[in-house]
Amino acid sequence: MSKLARQILEVLKTLAPDSVKQIIEKGLLRALVILVVVTVVLPPAIVLLAAYWLKALGGIDNKAVTAFRSAYLEVIEDGFSIEEVATRSNVRLDYFQLFEYDLSPRQMPVKELRLSLEPRQKAAIQLRTVTFKALDATCSLPEAEADVELVTVSLGDRPIRTLRQDSDATIDIGRPWWRDNADQFGDDDLVQRLSFRLTQRAREILTCGSVHLEGSVQVFKDLLTGE
Amino acid sequence: MRTPALVLIVSLIVPMHQPTFAAGWWSLEDRRMFPGSGGSTVRVSVVTIDLRQANLRGVSVPFAARSSVGSTELSVRGLAQALLKQPRYRGKEWILVNGGFSSYRVDVPLGLLVVDGKVYSTLSKEKTRRTQEVSGSDYSQLRWSGVLCQRTATSNWEIVPAARYTPGSCRHALQAGPVPIEPISRMAIGSSEPKLEKPYVRTVICIASESRIKVATTRDATHLLPMAIWMSRPEASGGLGCRAALNLSGDSSSGVVINGAKSPTLIGEGSFPLPTALVFEAK
After folding, report:
1. I want to staple A167 with a disulfide (CB 3.0 to 4.6 A). Which of A62, A70, A130, B239 is the partner?
2. Tens digits of per-residue pLDDT, B121-151?
């Protein structure tokens, strides 16, 4: 060992925590290094090497290599449960529905979406777009009152949120919501209506055009128990 | 004696390198260039309009094409063809420029659109993205930060901060963004923009003076920073002398159609559908 290497080792020894110093004093440094390499360095290095070779093999146009690569990938996918991890986030989803409506005071002030939601069933309503829309060239939107509450969202007969323009909201029908509202529904009642209704103020100010509404409903399989 | 000779030589040489077409109220410099990021050169066409002799207005693409919202997919090219069939535009000189951005449908505007006092779409108040480097001024509060506005009171065209827009203040208004140059000739794009954003083919509208508007349409993809630096530079230094500028929709929607004395000329691609456009016409 060169003089410089010895000096660096001395510096490291000085800087090392007490527990490491004790291991060195007992002459167990080599065992410590082996332990660190085996438990910390090798696992990610092996994965990195495997990824490198799989990528390299993917570029070779040879049936035997392709078959070997596929078999190897299958073992890895099974072993690491990659499919399971990928689908886990959706496994609890019962159904998902997109909606898009144009509400106008005269033609369609209310729109109802049919649901099948049991009491205490977990759901989420996401609103991405709530905006005024002029439908013809003669229409001028009430921009001075663009900040008023435009649409009331109700589940069954229960209003759950009122939306203004540019609302980007997620309404979580989770445990807290059911705790506060479960008494509105009988144990055997299916909640079958999600409705969007123009507010009285919106009906007054919207002499032309419509309110465009876009979003989605996610209903999960989870039935939340009461507290 | 030297100066007139120099002017004569320059006036002969410059048109050879920068083809210029003019028709009283507008002129086109078709082969301008500016240095882009990373040492590239960006080719750009510049249309200059004299507002003493021309009118500008924003239009809703579906309404200008006499259709209803949600039913059209017209690009600058398509809209120009539709306008050519209408008596109002047939046989006249006009310039059509791509407008702002689309909302949930390609022909529904994102943010404010006021046409001749009629509000077709209200102001978008979406906040500036966190990744954007902002100047801290009123122009950096909202993502679609500028409104090209013809003041109701004075009829002057300005680029006003969307965050300070007040209903009824503009006879014509179009919201877009970002605002690369704030009044007066202040750079509003952060120095890190070329690292954070992708380059695009762009259309940027610039107010050079009360009576002069310029529309710069690039032929190559560019970041906003080098374009803003070039546009804000005085004309005498090779820039455009912009006091304020607003970035309009870009990429394949970017395009200008000049319906001059001869057949219509298209600058840029102008092939992607768009919700709004700007129309210049002789007074």
Report:
1. A130
2. 999 888 887 555 556 788 888 889 999 999 9
Please tell me which of the candidates A140, A142, A146 has its beta carbon nearest to residue B123. A146
Q: What is the predicted pLDDT for the residue at A86?
A: 57
The domain containing residue A82 runs over which residues?
A: 3-88
Across the interface, whether the CB atoms of B69 and A146 are under 8 A apart is answered no
Domain boundary among A88, A109, A142: A88
Question: Total structural domains in chain A?
Answer: 2
Residue A136 with chain B: CB contacts under 8 Å: 63, 68
d(CA B243, CA B260): 27
Residues in chain B whose Cβ is within 8 Å of chain A: 60, 63, 68-69, 103-104, 108, 112, 114, 117-126, 167-168
Dihedral, B270, B274, B275, B281 alpha carbons, nearest 10: 0
- Last residue of a domain, which of A71, A88, A105? A88
> Would an 8 Å CB–CB cutoff place A132 in contact with chain B?
yes
Measured in angstroms, the CA of A176 and the nearest CA of chain B are apart by 29
A108 and A214 part of one domain: yes
Shortest CA distance from B111: residue in chain A: A131
Determine contact: A94 vs chain B, CB below 8 A: no
How far is the CA of A8 from the CAs of A29, A36, B185, B258, in angstroms?
15, 20, 58, 74
Q: Hey, how many other C-beta atoms are within 10 angstroms of the C-beta on B198? A: 8
In 3-state terms, what secondary structure has residue A133? strand
Residue of B nearest to A212 (CA): B104
Q: Which residues pair with B176 in a beta bridge?
A: B146
CATH number at residue A180: 2.60.120
Q: Is A111 found in the same domain as A208?
A: yes
pLDDT per position as a tens digit, A105-144:
888 899 999 888 888 888 999 988 888 889 889 999 988 8
Q: Do A131 and B122 touch (CB under 8 A)?
A: yes
**Nearest chain A CA: its distance from B30 CA (Å):** 35
Q: Which residues of chain A does B124 touch, with a Cβ-Cβ cutoff of 8 Å?
A: 166
Q: Are residues A124 and A50 located together in one domain of the fold?
A: no
A201 with A102, same domain?
yes
Instruction: Indicate yes or no: pTM above 0.90.
Output: no
Query: Cβ(A161)–Cβ(A194) under 8 Å?
Result: no
